[in-house]
């Protein structure tokens, strides 16, 4: 069960991370800060 959950998370991360970074960049014009915000959002999941 945990392996399946981890796989799903990896799939979501790979699919949505670039798009979410692009959206965040519209609000925070600093690439590193955008990546941090998106990573924190995924950690909160």
TrEMBL record:
GO terms for molecular function: DNA-binding transcription factor activity. InterPro entries: RNA_pol_sigma70_r2, RNA_pol_sigma_r2. It comes from the Bacteria. Residues 13-44 form the RNA polymerase sigma-70 region domain. One of its GO terms (biological process) is DNA-templated transcription initiation. Pfam families: Sigma70_r2 (PF04542). This is RNA polymerase sigma-70 region 2 domain-containing protein. The lineage of its organism: Bacteria, Pseudomonadati, Bacteroidota, Bacteroidia, Bacteroidales.
